[in-house]
Amino acid sequence: MANHTSALKRHRQSLKRNLRNRATNTRIKNAVKAVRSAVDAGDKEQAAVAMAAATKVLDKAAIRNIIHWRQAARRISRLQQAINKID
Length: 87
Description:
Blueprint: H1 5-41, H2 44-63, H3 69-84
Helix pairs in contact: 1-2, 2-3
């Protein structure tokens, strides 16, 4: 454990950020999973609704630097491609 005041503060900050990042990553996984399950079921309307929510979650995570903006763009693109393949 750290002894210096500044190191203790950095440790407290890292714990808070770790919780926030973990929560955001869980939100990302759940949003992507919702889109994937709708695509697997072949439900284009439900997939579109889930896609809107997933896009919002991914963009917020990218803005907050929890994931890289290119990773967010790639995930959104691949999800949209999967939705477009539904007949």
